[in-house]
Design goal:
heterotetramer, A: 326 residues, alpha/beta, 7-stranded mixed sheet, 5-stranded mixed sheet, 13 helices, 14 strands, globular, B: 343 residues, 5-stranded parallel sheet, 7 strands, 43% helix, binds thiamine diphosphate, binds magnesium ion
Chain lengths: 326, 343, 326, 343
């Protein structure tokens, strides 16, 4: 057991993956010599070699496309895109090829590839550095979409992603890299896909989140507790596959649900959850399923960012309204 | 531009193979054209969806792939059926794909040919990853990717060429400059005098060859394959050729192409000139020709029969291969489609 | 008034836009000499000149990026992408720049640009030619998203799009190009954004659709009528801006709603509508809002496509269940 | 590589301007460096978000933009503040952007400079569209785009260069080859010997110049601007220079750069050599230098004060400029944020 932050947990998992399987390699911009812009890959080139921890030219489509080819040939590449806002040049590779080769070839060719992407706002970065467009990947058939919120999950889900026979988009919450600490077993324990984690139990309402929003929701839940509302907090951990059972079971008990998502509101993942919850549990709903989300705006820059990102206050206010309704 | 075999069948350069060795390649070109004509005919009868003819490009496709080893990778496009078949992709799979049946995308084990790329541009970098991976694992397998003149305008061409050069990936880039990208002529696609010269931007050798000259293509491909195989890195080959038919069966070249231009290229037919050469070398007879056509027609008709006798896929089939194991969401959707209880 | 199909209506509108504003120009692959793969731009180069109806190299990012620059400089470019499946290489230009320059520059620079894209399945085309990923654009702040279903709307909404001060993604239902006919006034009557059309009235349930799904829904509604269920059918026409009022008003009356969408299910536009309806009208719902959608799979090829695309049968079955529920 | 002014201030070629004419450009470079140092200092104090220093690249930025007309377009990156300012983008806007305030993105009317591009690669084609549009409307305005060595690897560089050449757009492509893309050295970015030679792939002239040599940069930019202005089409200029500082204030060059390399480049400082030249020409005095530094420091401190005295934007501001008129959805979201009734 090591106590570390989420960034260090990712490093541990990458180091372990490289050490335990010669077919695993890392490629991306600045991942090698300098250890990545977040220092996640720091030291990995020194310990595993420049042919396995590879600095590439500045070309995201090339990074993903080359990693795709490597995966089809049987390697287990882990491609890093520096920020989610810079994954868009690789979008065609991801949507048209990475996600489809298994189906296109009836399983004759597959792409067991992990695309690691830091995502989300909260560090006052420049434009394009605060994106949270996970819904776009969840909308794309053939991709698994993983969004960890704790160091143990980051490490464990990453190992599961590397071992997965299909392409995985692995979104790492930038804000949690240093802020979120926890125990990680060494080597990390793989964490299965498709199993939500119950971060807090409570009879009054169900709060659902993932990634960077989980700590915000937990803080909101504590505030609610002070005013006598005990919330159940579910951390989805993977959006695809989705652990719907756990969500429906909880909402059927509480009759109330709040979904919290940092991404833009329209067609975000919270919309999918709200739509599905009312399909599956309409008659147990005591109030409308509420969405607390980022807005349909560009994520504001440093001075205004906090108006965009859901925080404990906004979440607690929405949850209180849901809990008190009817 | 490298030229060895002139349209009249005479040699203007050193042929890379003997007349005897040219016979099987001639046979392959004849078979490919039989497939091409047959496909166009089937499409007219509504038995295929759209079809993209490669007539006129047989030397460029058969000649480049002929330089490969049987286990090398080939990553081509919707127009590269001849190249794919030459590397082992069965006619029946090609027909199935054209009927709109997913089963076309799955060649037999051991055939290292990806299903044809429908998107223009994206697939070249896949060959870079494939070749790179082979070298990483100590194999001397290489990858060849085929694409058109229009594809060189896509950003992905640039990234693939640059990655291949920077990482010295064992890749052969085969650009079939067939003069048109649908209706857009080569000179409106880019201002560079040749497409081969684009290789220089990546510190990569680029060779322009007469793409209708089997021997020139073979020579260039042989050099490029040898470079890749021996770790000297990638090469770009521009095979100058012509798309004799329409872009696809949905296209009408009359709208953008001068019949005079088409006539000029008919005289440069890649198959005719090899036949003339073989004839001069006493390696060709009308009887052999008839035999070749009969054999290829039989093989191709058999493939059509095999493709058409397959029942359509079941309704739920589409859910089976999105992942190694369908997610609960996909299983639920399958039940919805089949009208089974799903809550 | 001319009676024509949807493709001809688009041509009429483009011709009119080119004729009435010298700043309007068209660019795209094969739009000029050969008149486009669907012949939508047939004859336009001849009548308006090769400097205004421009054949480009095969490079979607270049097409959209160049059109963006033209729009910033004050022109009114209409960029054509040949099929929605080929818009992905231009995704970064659309998401990172086209949709953002107004906000980034506080209105100092704007991009009044139309991106015309044929979308949807139904003609048994090859892979990548049957995409319906409108939700991705609806999820992107700063884009207006238009999906016409009739010739008059196609022409009228296109003229509105060209006049709009902001970027518009204009999705044309391939299947309806020839199949859907109707009257179009000459010159076409502009159709305002953000106003849904009530295509059919009925007290029993509300059916919501757009683009290629509207004819399918209307046929389903006729079948329902035979079994005594009278459905109200709403055609959204524009997804952004969204005419929520008309939807909520109708659902509040009928208490039942079915949303029909061709796109993939997860995080599709139907999810957004279902989530919003339960937020706004939960207490008038007599049954869960149902979604009839394409699946989270690659759109199958010609021989199996019909299993993917919602048709009258699947739609009517779902609607009947909703109408009968409770 | 074109060289005119050597590091010691002596001429090895024909200067495009007189010593007297060089004085205002020298002053501009001094002002730019004052801004650069000030920004780095402010960031250390937490008064700016990250900052990307252009120290060492002043000649490449001031020299290229100096060849433009005041109404020409400039489309640059996060590192091109000197170029943007030279074309009229106010210091205060540049500071605002760096504090993380949207108001930085809005230069005054008449200043045809786009806000800096944060994404690498995408902006070059914007310049193509801008120049193309100007010509389409009969204006002889041109567009200049600045970008780095790393940006040449993006597919969008390729598409922008090709479009510019095919449509003979009045565009000047200025590649500041500062030897690194964050940690990636130029020779790992691409194998081509020069970046200038990439122009040949598009049938476009490419010029490599000493980017720390104001006169060489001016000469090349002058030619390129003239070509664009007179309808002869685009040009690529590779300005060979060096990023003296870190990639951004979040970066540590010690991890990937040899101090020896940095020392070599310090001796090639673009400002020092012009000062030496002016000194030799009796056009420089310590007094004038002091004056320049005083003036620029005052102007820059004023801009900082103006930027910092602005109150933060209101909570609802972000909804105002997504469209000319916010949609009802955006208005509803604004009310949600402000805790106002919204149903
Ligand atoms: C990314 C993408 N854009 C556009 C298309 C539509 N399209 C299909 S083939 C083609 C022209 C390609 O020309 P070229 O590369 O010369 O190949 P050829 O068809 O001549 O063999 C185009 C534009 C596509 N399939 N993919
Ligand atoms: C599309 C995209 N990918 C990656 C990044 C992250 N990034 C910012 S600057 C940079 C290096 C650019 O190097 P170069 O083009 O040489 O410009 P320089 O910073 O040296 O001026 C990278 C990779 C980005 N901003 N945009
Ligand atoms: Mg071609
Ligand atoms: Mg650089």
């Amino acid at each position: 057991m090591t106590e570390c932050n989420l960034a260090q947990a990712v490093t541990m998992a990458l180091d372990h993956a490289l050490a335990s399987d010669p077919d695993v390699l890392l490629l991306g911009e600045d991942v090698g010599v300098t250890g990545g812009v977040f220092r996640i890959t720091d030291g990995l080139q020194a310990s595993h070699g420049a042919d396995r921890v590879i600095d590439t030219p500045v070309a995201e489509s090339g990074i993903v496309g080359a990693a795709f080819g490597m995966a089809v040939a049987g390697l287990r590449p882990i491609a890093e895109i520096q920020f989610l806002g810079f994954a868009y040049p690789a979008f065609d590779q991801i949507v048209s090829h990475v996600s489809r080769i298994r189906n296109r070839s009836r399983g004759r060719f597959t792409a067991p590839l992990v695309i690691r992407i830091p995502y989300g706002a909260g560090i006052g970065a420049a434009e394009h550095h605060s994106e949270s467009t996970e819904a776009i990947f969840a909308h794309t058939p053939g991709l698994k979409v993983v969004v960890p919120s704790t160091p143990a999950d980051a490490a464990g889900l990453l190992l599961t992603a590397v071992a997965d026979p299909d392409p995985v988009v692995f979104l790492e919450p930038i804000r949690s890299y240093r802020r979120t600490r926890g125990d990680v077993s060494d080597p990390p324990e793989p964490v299965p896909f498709g199993r939500a984690a119950v971060r807090r139990t409570g009879p009054d309402l169900t709060m659902v989140a993932y990634g960077a929003m989980v700590p915000e929701v937990l803080e909101a839940a504590d505030r609610l507790s002070d005013s006598g509302i005990e919330a159940e907090v579910l951390d989805l951990r993977t959006l695809v596959p989705l652990d719907l059972e756990t969500v429906i079971e909880s909402v059927s008990r509480t009759g109330r649900a709040v979904i919290v998502q940092e991404g833009h509101r329209t067609c975000g993942f919270a919309a999918e959850l709200a739509a599905t919850i009312q399909e599956e549990a309409l008659y147990s709903l005591l109030a409308p399923v509420a969405r607390v989300t980022g807005w349909d705006t560009v994520v504001p820059l440093r001075r205004s960012e906090h108006h965009y990102v859901p925080g404990p206050e906004r979440i607690a206010a929405a949850a209180t309204a849901v809990a008190r309704e009817g | 531009m490298l030229e060895i075999l002139s349209p009249d069948g005479s040699l203007v350069g050193e042929p890379p193979i003997s007349a005897a060795e040219a016979r099987p390649l001639y046979a392959a070109m004849v078979a490919a054209r039989t497939y091409d004509h047959k496909s166009t005919a089937l499409q007219k009868q509504g038995r295929l969806a759209t079809y993209a003819s490669f007539e006129g490009q047989e030397a460029a496709q058969i000649g480049t792939v002929a330089a490969l080893r049987a286990d090398d990778w080939v990553v081509g496009t919707y127009r590269d059926a001849a190249a794919m078949w030459m590397q082992g992709y069965p006619w029946v799979n090609l027909f199935l794909g054209r009927t709109g049946d997913e089963r076309g995308g799955s060649p037999p084990a051991g055939v290292n040919v990806l299903p044809p790329s429908i998107t223009v541009g994206a697939h070249m970098i896949h060959a870079v990853g494939l070749g790179w991976a082979e070298r990483h694992r100590g194999s001397d397998r290489i990858a060849m990717t085929l694409f058109g003149d229009g594809a060189t305008s896509e950003g992905d061409f640039h990234e693939a060429m640059n990655f291949a050069a920077v990482f010295r990936a064992p890749v052969v880039f085969v650009c079939q400059n067939n003069q048109y990208a649908i209706s857009t002529p080569r000179d409106r696609q880019t201002v560079s005098e040749t497409l081969a010269q684009k290789a220089d931007a990546y510190g990569m050798p680029g060779l322009q060859v007469d793409g209708n000259d089997l021997f020139a293509v073979l020579t260039a491909a042989g050099e490029a394959v040898a470079r890749a195989r021996t770790g000297e890195g990638p090469t770009l080959i521009e095979a100058v050729t012509f798309r004799v038919g329409a872009h696809t069966t949905a296209d009408d070249p009359g709208r953008y192409r001068d019949p005079a231009e088409e006539a000029v290229w008919r005289d440069r037919d890649p198959i005719d000139r090899v036949r003339r050469f073989l004839e001069l070398e006493q390696q060709w007879t009308p009887e052999w020709q008839a035999e070749l056509e009969k054999e290829s027609t039989e093989a191709i008709e058999l493939a059509i029969a095999q493709a058409e006798e397959l029942d359509p896929l079941e309704a739920g089939d589409m859910f089976d291969r999105m992942f190694a194991t369908p997610t609960t969401q996909l299983e639920r959707q399958r039940r919805m489609l089949l009208g089974e209880p799903h809550d």
